[in-house]
Amino acid sequence: MSIAVLFVCLFQSAEEIDQLTVDEDLNDIERAVYLLSFGQEVQRVSVISNLPSLVRQNPAETFRRVVPKVREVLNGAGAEIQLAAAASFLTILQDDIILIHTHTYSILKTVLLHLNHRDTVVSNAWLETLLSAIGALPKETIKQEVLNPLLYQSQLSHSLQARLASCRILGKIASKFDSHIVKKELLPLAHSLCQDVEFEVRASMCRQLENIARATGTELLPELVELAGDEESSVRLAAFDTIINLMEMIDSDDRLHVVVPLVMSVCDSSSQADEAVMASLSFQFGKLCSGLAGDQHRTRLLQKFKLFSVSGLQTEGNHTETSSESTLIRCNCCYNLPAMVVFADSAHFLSEVYPSFASLCCDPEVSVRRTACSPGNTLRCFVDVVFEVLDALMNHLEETLEAVLSRGENTSVDNKLLSALLLAEQTVGCSLRWRLHEKLLQRYSCLARLLPGDILHQSFSPRIFIILTTNKVLPVQKEAARTFCTFLRYNRKQEQRQEMMERLIQDLAQGRSYWNRLRFLDVCETATEIFSRKYFNKHFLIPALELVHDPVANVRYKLCQLLPRLRSSLRLPSDKQLLQQLDFCVQKLLCREKDKDVVATILFLNECVQFQKRQEKDLLDQKKEKEETLLLEMVRFSITHYCYIQIVQTVSLMFLCRQEQLERQQTEAKTNDKLNERKRESEQNLYLLSENSCFICSCDLWEQSRVLKRFVEGLGTVILVRPRVCYLTKNYTNISAPLIMMLKICMVLFPMFALVKSALKVCSYM
Predict the structure, then answer these.
(1) What is the greatest pairwise CA distance in the chain?
(2) The whole model's pTM is what?
(3) How many CB atoms lie within 10 A of CB 538?
(4) How far apart, in Å, do the first and last CA atoms of the chain sit?
């Protein structure tokens, strides 16, 4: 009932409903022909819009029966049907639905009939369809059906719309013919349109000269230079853009004596009045400079870039006038920064490019600063081209990454930066700069502190392991081993740790290649420095000792050299069984070894290196062991990786503050002993934690650190004690487990920090 009411409301009469009714027994082709012949306009539009589907189902019948009907309907049809037909034919051409050229020719005849429609929107739609059809037609058809009418409608007697269409068609068909035909048939027509009385035609034709020039060579350069001096700014811009796009075709002499003077003249003439021209020039500036070499014009071009980077920032008194065009110019300068770094080279970077970069980073407009500080794009461009810049960047990589990644606010920026880091390693790894590769891997070890374990495990650890197993440069291998061990140590998920260890043992210690087994011993040597003795003995020692049975003498020789280090990792009485296994390996080598170098090495080590029972406490090893335990406990207490970073930064600032005050005390002690004694007593009373005190930090840090506030929220009141120091007071019964864990980490990271030690001693939970 509701459907009937809806139809009555829509069409108002039963007669109209009958007119829209179609026999259900008709197939799709017959229904389309019927609706095109007798249907209303809305039905015809629907059929024409569905034409690509009909062509896919039955192309032969569609072009034999439906397309002729569409051609009949288009004669005198309104704009809606015209646009629907143009869109459908364009879809058919772009989707490569047509299988034979006769069907394309059928569409071409339809398009040419309606190309000069009086409605500009409809005419442009048919023009797009024609340009797509040109790519699918043979040369002879284009020459007969398109080129000949093109010569006629390009004359001044035709409308502006027809001449603009001729420019675009001319640029499209230029790529279909060889150089001889282009010079003979198309070049005279292009010259004629470049001299048209309407500046829109000149600008449109100027942008199509790039396609023609790629077929004819640089013969059009004088024409482009002339158009670059046109009275209309749009024509000048079109000429300038075309010249820049053809830079790779222009020889060095023409670049220096034609292109550069042209750029300077355009900059000088446009700098005062037309900011739109400057906006386009600033966007193309990097491409222009990348096509030039030598020092002759470098200074002038870099000076122009400096002017672009401060465009619109000229001040009158304290007022700075900016506009949308000037902001766009400065954004374009940010976009071109990588190209300008390459153009300036490392020798001129600090003096010529860095001031502009610094200015853009401090720009008053947010959009400019965001573009200037886009790390993914800039870093990726740097590492693709300039190894010197990458080398300099490595010196401060840890501080840079910490500043960016510790924010944790922009995931897309972080992802781009991480992708750029991986791309940097791959780029350097494919080059011959192994020292830079070694330096890069050394710096990447800081990622274990800055990135979550999941990202390291998924993206960086596999890449480092590939370097460890495939790279042939020994320093690079050893640095890859150190970085991999660092990632392993700071990974807080036990299952991921286990997976990484299994891969080390299966692919290296038990690998088929003796080269990989040697690499495992290198990893063991590094692991003794990074891991605690307990962790090393549990995971590395036994696989290393099993290599005593290795069939390759070089592997056994390497193991003999490593034995003193393996022995030093054992402590009695807890490691008595491991010591027995190690001694058994030594005795086996002494009894069964046949290689003279291995025998000489094991005899020398057995005589010179005597094992000493170490029962004394190794403070450094204890610190490592506590850190490894705390890293796993952080998972249980749900302390995030970012919070861990903030904890480290917080305690670091606290430690520096305390050190600064102690140094000040020592300086004052030299001037007055008595005054120093009083201050020492005062400071001792000030910093000695009472039974209710809990935590101490910088006031500035307290105001800035949201994480710290979240940790100690509800614990107590902040009491100001010194201009730079504050502490919290509360009964310890309300201290949360995460805060206790934070204090534990403070003690491990800074064992000499008496304040944290005191807090732990007072806390009853310890």
Answers:
(1) 114
(2) 0.48
(3) 13
(4) 79
Looking at every residue in the chain, the average pLDDT score rounds to 71
762: burial class by Cβ within 10 Å (0-12, 13-18, 19+)?
Answer: middle
pLDDT surpasses 60 at 20: yes
In tens, the pLDDT along 520-574 reads: 888 888 888 888 878 888 888 888 888 888 888 888 888 887 777 777 777 777 7
Quote the pLDDT of residue 534: 80
Looking at residue 269, its pLDDT comes to 62
Give Cα 354 distance to the centre of its chain: 22
Lowest mean pLDDT among 90-94, 116-120, 320-324, 349-353: 320-324
- Tell whether the model's pLDDT for residue 617 goes beyond 70: no
Q: Is the pLDDT of residue 719 over 50?
A: no
Report the 3 state secondary structure along 691-717.
Answer: CCEEEEEEHHHHHHCHHHHHHCCCCCE
Give me 443's structure tokens: 């710096």
- Considering only CA atoms, give the Rg of the chain: 38
Neighbours of 202 (CB within 10 A): 21
Q: How far apart are CA 391 and CA 385, in angstroms?
A: 12
Bigger pLDDT: 513 or 674?
Answer: 513
Report the alpha-carbon distance of residue 528 to residue 535 in Å, rounded.
9
- Is residue 416 within 8 A of residue 377, CB to CB? The reply is yes
544's tokens: 């290393």
Instruction: Please tell me the distance from the alpha carbon of residue 369 to that of residue 349, in angstroms, as a whole number.
Output: 20
- Judged on CB neighbours under 10 Å (0-12, 13-18, 19+), 30 is middle
**Residue 134 structure tokens:** 């040109």
Using the 8-state DSSP alphabet, how is residue 176 labeled? Answer: G
Could you tell me the two tokens for 59? 């192309």
Q: Starting at the edge strand that comes first in sequence, how are the strands of the sheet with 725-729 ordered?
A: 693-698, 725-729, 717-722
Neighbours of 685 (CB within 10 A): 9
What's 183's DSSP letter? I
Alpha-carbon span 721 to 727, nearest angstrom = 8
Show the domains of the chain with their CATH numbers.
Answer: 445-620 (1.25.10.10), 639-762 (no CATH)
Amino acid at 705: S
> Are the CB atoms for 22 and 34 separated by under 8 Å?
yes
CB 149 within 8 A of CB 111: no
Question: Cα separation of 584 and 578, whole Å?
Answer: 10
Q: Which two tokens stand for residue 424?
A: 């940097």
Q: What are phi and psi of 448, to 5 degrees?
A: -60, -25
Residues 6+ apart with CB under 8 A from 320: 313, 314, 364
Phi and psi based region of residue 693 (left: phi greater than 0; alpha: psi -120 to 50; beta: remaining): beta
pLDDT digits (tens, 9 = 90+) for 364-385: 887 787 777 654 444 444 444 4
Q: Is the pLDDT of residue 413 over 60?
A: no
Look-up of token digits 């190690």? 582
Token representation of residue 412: 């897309």
